[in-house]
Amino acid sequence: MLALPVKTGSGGFFPSLMLFVVLWGVMLATAYFLLDVNLKLKGELNLFSMAAKMLGPIGKWSACVLYVLLLYALLAAYLSACSPLFVQGIELLLSWRMPDAWSFFILPMLFGCTISLGIASVDYVNRILMLGLLVSYVLLIGALPGHMDLSRLMSYDMAKSFTAAPLILTAFGYHIIIPTLTTYMHHQVSLLRKALWIGSLIPLVVCVLWQLGILAAVPKALLLDALVQGVPATTPLESLLKTTWMQGISSFFAFFALVTSFLGVSLSLSDFLIDALSLKKGWEGRLLATLLTFIPPLFVLLSCTNAFYFALDYAGAFVALLLGVLPACMVLRFKRPSWYAKKRGRILIISVLLIMGIVVGIDLAMHF
Predict the structure, then answer these.
(1) Which of 7, 66, 107, 366 is the most exposed place for a label (fewest CB within 10 A)?
(2) 23-27, 49-53, 243-247, range with the lowest pLDDT
(3) CA distances in angstroms from 54 to 58, 109, 195, 327, 343, listed in the order given
């Protein structure tokens, strides 16, 4: 959410709205792919065991590699955007400017301690942070109409809007929870399908409202500057909000949005590494997993000047491959009388594969 208005600012609101709806629909289709594979195989399976059963060892290891790369890319993006906020907070409290590089290391140390204590501590901290995120979002959205100029929504550039496709795709990457959801809802197909489309519709509405508010309130020039500087949408927004308390709410929203995601991704990657590397369940294994979780994204931060958008763009390609191409390849293995083996099913699968290929192509073109 912090990156979307900045990446779509040069393309305009209506092209980005079109991309949001199309890519939401594509990701919903791949979510149904995964759901149907999960229901077909039965049992309490995860994404990797599903890939292994449907696509063999190549599918399993492809899923593992893409999953790790995706989470590392997300962690690098979150750390990059969190660090300046942390430096600002220390400066306000202590009237001392911490060197920026220090914040890259202090944040993993602080959150690493929380993660090393296990899921219970992360859950408790995350509940408080989620409450702060919800309150700050509502206050910020409520304050934006007074700063909006609807004429800003009329400008558009279709060619530039497509560069945001990998990032928009990342906003709908919820598929990893589908196996757990299937078990939780006792394999009730109609309820599961309803849960997926309603559950994914909520972030679509939330993100579109955010897009509308930011692109109408913030001039395009400021959004372009934010993209060049590698800062989130709340940075140019703060320069427009007149009161100090509203600027504070903007900073709080950015912090809560980043940290809630950061904690979840860090815990997921740490747990995956413990399982994949067969690490000890005690504090030694947790410590090693925490180090392996944070060292690679720190390397990205220290070697890349615009790590926030750089990492998120790569995350988009990994989402396209892991949550788009992989599920499509799985349902391609379905045989008649399955709907996926019929003409309309094959057309849908091929269309999804084509769109995912375009997203990966856009991502590679931007970098190379």
Answers:
(1) 366
(2) 243-247
(3) 10, 40, 24, 10, 21
